[in-house]
Amino acid sequence: MTQELQGMRVGILATDGVERVELDQPRGALQGAGAKTEIVSLHPGEIQARQFDLNAAGTFPVDRLVADASVDDYHALLLPGGTMNPDQLRMNRDAVQFVKDFMASGKPVASICHGPWTLAEADAVRGRRLTSWPSIRTDLRNAGAEVVADQEVVVDGQLVTSRGPADLPAFCAATVEQFARAHHPMPG
Question: What are the Cα distances from residue 99, in Å, to 25, 33, 34, 57, 79?
Fold first, then answer.
């Protein structure tokens, strides 16, 4: 186990309907590399996770409300998917502003599956190259993104994106790598 993310704080913006595996696996990879993670959400208590959007898949405790969170509290941001999760986040002014502030800060952001919906709502995909779950690609194009369909991971500057659960191994590796690069900038 490496500790390349030691001392890094990563916010995970999620709410009810989050796809469990898309939160669990990246969080495990980040924590395995030494990062501290916090679930930032719309309401206190616990959020309900799903499997394939349809099946209940347990809960996650909420660490902080997005209304009380600031981009200054974190070194990086993770946006997992699930259909209902980003659909609710993009309807919440605080969540959208949090994502907009993160993208404006230049800090790294990783998003998978339907997660980029919130990025689109924050007007943060215009001119960016990214990928996502197939059903939201038109929304992303309409928001000004260059959408790539045939790559499991796309890295565009501070942004790491993947298509869905099948891409999790590559997404987790790229996320840790990009977050480490930002946490420990390369010389020259």
Answer: 21, 24, 23, 26, 9
